[in-house]
Design a protein that fits this description.
heterodimer, A: six-stranded mixed β-sheet, B: mainly beta, four-stranded antiparallel β-sheet
């Protein structure tokens, strides 16, 4: 099955700096890669996603890049703010035998933005 | 983004009792919903896939008789933890797939504590 690795597990940056989180996946058939932000005691919130026919996508301070050949994708947050502090999960969508798909999640990155 | 409502947000119960958790997609129909379990500082572990009008598909190692899933309508799935024990204490999260774009949206989670 699909295996998604995520690095780093923890990341501390100064307010205003950029943060980069990287993920790799194993199943070359995966074609959808969302990123989620999870605050303490809450469910994950979809912040950005990318499909395999696109190499890069940007939404204000957040961007995601995808390298299908190398099977890795990254989340970039620019001009970080204290409210960006949370756990971020990457995921890869795996096609299931018989139809449908399911997400395989990375292990998460605890981002801390320090004043 | 689409809204998924999950209730209750937290529940405390005695060992041996059953607890029901509801997951509703408020502004879209979800033919497929997913139930996850998350331990502190860990990633989401998929428990089962819930398909409207059919039996749920459980992941390996998840007891289907203990974690009863019902997906009777396109907007509601329920997870019932039967004969709960302290080791069932965890954060349970549901998600719903938006059919039009395959995006997955999560509920706010339920913290279950079994005494």
């Amino acid at each position: 099955g699909e295996n998604v690795e995520q690095h780093p597990s923890t990341l501390s940056v100064q307010e205003g700096d950029s943060a980069v989180i990287k993920c790799t996946y194993s199943d070359s058939a995966s074609n959808y890669f969302p990123w989620y932000k999870q605050e303490l005691g809450k469910g994950p919130q979809l912040i950005i996603d990318i499909r395999s026919n696109v190499g890069e996508k940007k939404d204000q301070r957040i961007a995601v890049t995808l390298n299908k050949t190398a099977k890795h994708f990254s989340l970039h947050i620019t001009e970080t703010q204290p409210e960006d502090s949370a756990v971020y999960f990457c995921a890869a969508s795996t096609i299931l035998t018989g139809g449908g798909n399911k997400l395989t999640f990375g292990t998460g990155t605890q981002l801390k933005v320090e004043l | 983004g689409a809204v998924v409502s999950q209730h209750p947000s937290w529940v405390i119960c005695k060992s041996g009792t059953s607890v029901k958790i509801e997951c509703r997609s408020l502004d879209f129909q979800a033919t497929t919903m997913f139930w996850y379990r998350q331990f502190p500082k860990q990633s989401l572990m998929l428990m089962a896939t819930s398909n409207e009008g059919s039996k749920a598909t459980y992941e390996q190692g998840v007891e289907k008789d203990k974690f009863l899933i019902n997906h009777a309508s396109l907007t509601l799935s329920t997870l019932t933890v039967t004969s709960a024990h302290p080791e069932d204490s965890s954060f349970y999260i549901c998600s719903a797939r938006q059919a039009v774009n395959e995006k997955l949206f999560f509920g706010s989670g339920t913290q279950l504590s079994v005494l």
